[in-house]
């Protein structure tokens, strides 16, 4: 994340730009932001799928453990 001095320099640079150059810079910035957002969204989706998989695995393990305990405690 940029520091306040970096942000100040970037703002001053943008204030000195012509309209077309500023428009192009803003377009690049928006595209870059959209790409970052998409990468974050994709990563979050992958993480949520992994959490769901792990929860399912835990549920299966708990169910198997309960079944084993029930089998051990039932009279033969």
Which segments are poorly predicted (pLDDT under 50) over 5 or more consecutive residues?
none
Distance between the termini: 67 Å
Share in β-strands: under 5%
Give the overall silhouette.
Answer: rod-shaped
Explain this structure to me?
This protein has one domain (4-73). The chain has helices at 4-15, 19-73. With 76 residues, it is mainly α. The relative contact order is 0.05.
Keyword list:
76 residues; mainly alpha; 2 helices; 88% helix; rod-shaped
What is this entry, summarized?
The protein is mainly alpha-helical. It contains two helices and no strands.
What secondary-structure arrangement, pairings included, does this model have?
Layout: H1 4-15, H2 19-73
């Amino acid at each position: 994340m940029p520091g306040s001095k970096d942000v100040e320099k970037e703002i001053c640079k943008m204030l000195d730009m012509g309209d077309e150059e500023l428009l192009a810079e803003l377009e690049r910035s928006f595209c870059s932001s959209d790409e970052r957002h998409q990468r974050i969204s994709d990563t979050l989706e992958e993480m949520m799928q992994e959490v769901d998989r792990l929860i399912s695995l835990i549920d299966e393990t708990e169910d198997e453990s309960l079944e084993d305990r029930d089998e051990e405690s039932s009279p033969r």
